[in-house]
Amino acid sequence: MNIRYLLLLFFITHTCIISLAQSAEGTLSGRIVNADGEVITGASVILQNTGTGTTTDADGRFSLAGITPGSYVLAVSNIGYTAFTQLIRVARGTNSFLNLQLSESRQELDEVLVSTAKDRYQVLASATSTRTNTPLLSTPQSVQVLSSQVLRDRQAFTLNEIAGSFTGMKVNNGNGNFQIRGFTAYSPNDASFLLYNGIRGNLFLWSQQPLLYNVESVELLRGPSGALFSEGSPGGVVNFITKKPLSEKQAGIDLSAGSWGFGRGSLDFTGPVGKQKKLLYRAIIGYDRSKSFRDYQDKKNLFVAPSLTYLFNSRSSLQLELNYAYQKAVQQYDNGSYIYSRADGSFDFNYYPKNLTVQSPTDYGKTHNGSATLTFSHQISDHLKLTVVERAVRNILDYTDHIPVGRIRNDSISRGFQDWETDRFSLQTTAFATYTAKTGFIGHQIIAGTDYNRYGWTKNDYRFKSSTRISILHPDYTGSIPDAAAPADESDDNKRVTNLIGGYVQDQLSMGSKVKVLFSLRYDHYNGKETPLSDQDDKQGDELQASGWIPRVGLVYLPVRNVSIYGTYLKSFNPQTSNNALAGGPFPTRKATQYEAGAKADLLSNHLSAVVSMYQINYANILTAAPTEENSHRQAVIDGTRSRGGEFSLTGNLDRLSIIAGYAFNEHVLVSTSSYGKKGDRFANAPKHQINFWGKYALPFRVLSGFGIAAGVRYVSDQVGLLSNQNFVFPSYTVLDAALTYQRNRFQVQLNAYNLANRHYFTGSRSGVTTGGLGDPRNVRLGLSYQLW
């Protein structure tokens, strides 16, 4: 990095600003003791069904700020004590000080989830990694959570726009394609790398950037997570926590406008139905439209997300969440920007103007995405809880597209034409029970569950034909759509159904307050079949049979209450995306094994969280092309790759300063020589170094009350764009962002500026040297928010 950027980063740390809390909100504080009057430190304190929570300090005191006035259930718990709940009423301003007492229990109780408080960056717990309410400090895995406040401050409306705030994660291109710990996470190959509330079933197709209209927070679970979620990216999985109905009536409106004709609006209504407040509702509606810095690109999104929660009693609830997303786009796929190849085999990444595209103005994409999730939760006893989830997803895509074929010569490129219609589905059933118990001095949190996932497609009609060659600098699109009667060079016409049945058991053992051990074991069985629907299908059938055991072991040691040292061993396996006999299949499953060790600390009275981790991931049985004279489509399995590195992240709120920062080192290489490449070759789209920083600070000056300024930097070192060509290396880049906010009562206005230095940079490859994912040039976004009630 240039020294100027380091100095700027230092300056930002001391000068970035956040907006002040709304004066119409309430503050709650108190102190917790045991029956002998002794203070209880580290007790969990939350307002149920909200994202507001904290823990008690060394004096047993707690404080919750930024609470919307209304009625809440206050829940307090700590290991070794009986959980305590109390109905409270929070008014505006400072409320009465609470003196609470916990009684000792003979059972090892479940630790209550402590999530992010309003207007905070720091998140103290996540239920996703272990499917139990375990603080992140006691979780034997590297987990990072971006709170709703981070999403708001960044004005991030898609996963692509927030990915760079995660340590060690980056966007590869303008589609749903990401890099985590050196591995590519991409929907077609890793169907479950995107989770919703810890459940499989990605709402969006791989050609789309996942929208965040109904997302409260985003979690990154690093490393293979097959023990709970089956297949997924070896580098990690991303989990969306969606917004839930609330017991108090609220409504808000958000409007945004920005560069390239960007416009966005959303409404969010929530509250109870009736005085008893047993039925809660929430409705989120959003619409956006945008063009691009590239020619001819246009995109529109409509998003609707109604949800209901019915509270049978204090122990049982039923939740229904519906999502519908419609996208209409010209050039739905982001096929990247041109890269110039020099005669000596090197590349010029600044040669072609950024506005040019290989696609035609006649290309289009229409996508209908829908999901329905039904969740039943019942607390059978104080120690036994049952959860059952049904999730159904359907994706319908109709699109045409032009892609590059071959290399650029004399500033012109040959193109292919794709015409595709597909109808895809996923039906997921998940049921698990959580049981807390104690044997001697050892506490147990046992979870046992089963999953059934039926997924695939009922229609997959794909045609590839040769199209016209165009001049890159002066394109003529005449005749670019091939004759419908012309034979296809490649075609698919099939349906596919895959059934996944899995079961797992997990035990989290607590040996006093300092030692925690995690054991998990899962068994998965896949059974899939692809059936041709006509003679036009090239593969003429495919079958999948795979099964295996997935273990997980973790150890956490807390030498003091706010510091932990952990180690973990994780495995996962993914069925091959192709097992076609004509290609040489069936092939052995892809397997990932991770070894990780690290330390975590909640510092400065739990206001700042730090995590450092080191890991190695071994990935085996990767498919590579191995054509012969008799079979040009033949594939083969190679030994695999090794990814190892380390990460450091820092997140928290220090008075008026809020920060999220991190550094990641990764080295992802081939472990043997094959037709894929030579031993030691760098893996594609895997930079060795990444730095992320975002900070904000609230000015203490009365004359500037309500104003705030924020800024950040993202640095990515150079990266190989294609495994088979180690000379194809994208240059490193540094991107600077900033924001200015003003908030008063229910109103907030915010101006974000991205890529302030207007840096021309490529984010990753498109599996070739002709085009690559180009980062957005300088652009701005103005947002207005108003809380109706």
Throw out a few tags for this protein.
globular, four-stranded mixed beta sheet, disordered N terminus, 4% helix, 789 residues, tonb box, 4 helices, mainly beta, Plug_dom, cell outer membrane, single chain, 47 strands, 22-stranded antiparallel β-barrel, ion transport
In short:
This protein is mainly beta. It has 4 helices and 47 strands.
Describe how the helices and strands are arranged.
Blueprint: H1 3-15, E1 26-33, E2 44-47, E3 53-55, E4 61-67, E5 70-77, E6 84-90, E7 93-94, E8 98-101, E9 125-126, E10 134-135, E11 143-146, H2 148-154, H3 159-162, E12 169-171, E13 177-180, E14 183-186, E15 194-196, E16 215-222, H4 226-229, E17 236-242, E18 250-258, E19 262-273, E20 279-290, E21 298-311, E22 316-330, E23 337-338, E24 340-341, E25 347-348, E26 364-379, E27 384-409, E28 412-439, E29 442-466, E30 470-471, E31 490-511, E32 515-532, E33 542-560, E34 563-574, E35 590-603, E36 608-625, E37 635-654, E38 657-670, E39 689-698, E40 707-716, E41 719-722, E42 725-730, E43 733-744, E44 747-754, E45 762-765, E46 771-774, E47 779-787
Parallel strand pairs: 1-7, 1-8, 15-17
Antiparallel strand pairs: 1-4, 2-3, 2-5, 5-6, 9-10, 11-16, 12-13, 13-14, 16-17, 18-19, 18-47, 19-20, 20-21, 21-22, 22-26, 23-46, 24-25, 26-27, 27-28, 28-29, 28-30, 29-31, 31-32, 32-33, 33-34, 34-35, 35-36, 36-37, 37-38, 38-39, 39-40, 40-43, 41-42, 43-44, 44-47, 45-46
